[in-house]
């Protein structure tokens, strides 16, 4: 009987299988867009459960429904979601998804391993699609492509040289001595955006490494590879990223393959660079020459007459030269070639791309070349396990020549132009020998033709994402998500000034510097995400995990002077110097977050991140960075009338904290190599370290509303924020009797307040004509709320001071730290009293983006950018006035602080898609476009976007002899196979 009993027990479950099967019923269907094209990869989810599927190559799907009645939610990127009620015996569904004109279904980041629909987000997260980024015109760099397209983002070009150089500020200044650039994350990889110095300051006499006009390394990313960019502008959105997020976070997602036929796209762009505007050279008469360069004393009178004679002789020979046009008048040729291949099947998707950009500058022998290759793979090993790999390689070369600040190095073009008179012939003779410049320390034509300032970069980015579904039921889902990434940069720099150069003779007698920068960063995170769907429609998303980041750098700079003639070998110089900088940073954190969604009506999120860092005074102490937010969708409540012309009303509020640790080396007092008694030894450096430093901390609260009208053809987003930055780190001079020149302090507080407004309109959307426009408006105000210790506590009150390394002192104009004043103010001495005479913070900014489509084949796009206010310190004009090559002079500094307002046509393009029915071509596109096409401004110099001090600190809006900015024009030709 025992064998029979066992058999009965085995067969018993089979008796209930028909009952279980009877409780389910199949539903099938197809999904297409409004033009009848099948949509591949549409998510089909049973409402109130985690059960779902995706459409296949033909847009078809099949799913088993466990209960009756039921609803299916269909969602797809770029299209409005649709909910359909289904029942037993229903015929195959034919579903048409309409475009999501308001981007309400767009998903945005809400955690390290989770996303949320934009319509449910409690933060003002700005999203730029790849089409918005590069669809109008070819972009040089990612950060430069964001101009005017986002609210709350202030971008300033730090150098007009090919290869970029930009300072990006999200919602104002967040640090005085630390990093003000946001954290960039590409496919889960924390990437370096460092500016790498090359040692050229030792030849030019510039004050610091931030005056070498270096590009920042986000320039290595090919903008054409990008699918979308999400910008977490404030602490309330970026808190989940902890101590790296004090200046905001920019999350870049690159393109992925889609299941279906293999698609091949090739784009070829041809264009040119030309200067945005020339300042112009002063015209003289013989009498003006004598008066300008002479004087009342006998020797001055003789000098004026001699200069007049030189002028008249040059006029007679026809040798009046416009050196500004000669140096900056090149039309640099640009070619940009891009190839993309993508496709896949139900298990594996791939995206392969390669790009080559070769861009010549407006100065002869300057340019930028970038080759990039990408392989993105997604493989579904099983229904539970998915792996994604993103591999990127880039090799770039930049020739930047010499511009910016110097101290009589004779190299910077702006300096030599300021003092060089147009009747001096500086061209080489028949044997190639360049004459000395009688007006300044260098011949700019020799600088252009014989000096070298080069940078070569090899870089690899690798991101890995593993998603394992541990548990999947109708109401529960548990996923383990591992993210890993590495960023390796090998940069080599080369600077050469020949011994024959005018300023080198009898001084350095030739200068040569070679640098090698080896940077290696890696990060990983392990996050568990649990989703729970209740029968009442309340959904819970819980996540917890760990994160780790390691950064290391080995920066070696070797330089030599006193060169053997015609040699460019470091060993051929008699005065050699070697500098090396080593860095290693570790950071570790815990992440906890809970999100509750009540029928899409109320969405609340609370979380906290605990971080520790080797950059803090106590490397084992965890600092907490909390966040909380709530969004209320009034239009989802039952009392809302579906016929109401207002389709969306969302109220939202959010709070969060982020941090920023001290830069490497600030915790300790360093030693400097010195010869002591003829032997190698060390002395204490001038910077006094502090082992008790704590992170700078930003606390932000924001309030906002999102509105949608008239079938969401009118959309409004408005946000107000208050952001307090506590315990800012800064350097302060101390009495030399202490044995140090300065100390680092941690007792400065700052407040930023701002308003952001976006209006999106789709007034016309027909088969033959569509017009979409977006208007962005934003402003920010800053105030220093604490300087030094609080009243009533022990310690020393700190007087107002000029921060180090941001400008050139109150005598020329600078930033000035004064309690109750904006941190962005420009100050000068007026009657011996420090006085604010300008503010680099714009009064407001405005972007107006327009997209028109005619007859489905012709696209017309243009973007205007208006910046009102924002004063600049124009020290280029100070130089040219001193050199008498400009027609005006000021008796005081105030005349050189100018209004930097401008109205610019930032981008414009026209593209025509040829309608084809071919076995080879899917489509052909031709078009023309431009960047920085025209600018209306009263600013008297080259461009009201300037930053001589690079992208760090308070550097923006200080102009000294820049590499002038360029406008670009392109012809486009594209093929789809």
From TrEMBL:
Limits of the TonB-dependent receptor plug domain: 120-249
An annotated GO BP: siderophore transmembrane transport
A Pfam family annotated for this UniProt entry: TonB_dep_Rec_b-barrel
Feature: compositional bias, Polar residues: 199-217
GO molecular function, one term: siderophore uptake transmembrane transporter activity
Major location (coarse): membrane
Gene3D superfamilies linked: Carboxypeptidase-like, regulatory domain, TonB-dependent receptor, beta-barrel domain, TonB-dependent receptor, plug domain
One cellular-component annotation, GO: cell outer membrane
Signal sequence annotation: 1-23
Region (Disordered): 199-219
TonB-dependent receptor-like beta-barrel domain residues: 435-933
The entry's keywords: Cell outer membrane, Membrane, Receptor, Signal, TonB box, Transmembrane, Transmembrane beta strand, Transport
Compartment list: Cell outer membrane
Topology with respect to the bilayer: Multi-pass membrane protein
Annotated family: Belongs to the TonB-dependent receptor family.
Protein name from the UniProt record: TonB-linked SusC/RagA family outer membrane protein
Organism listed in the record: Neolewinella xylanilytica
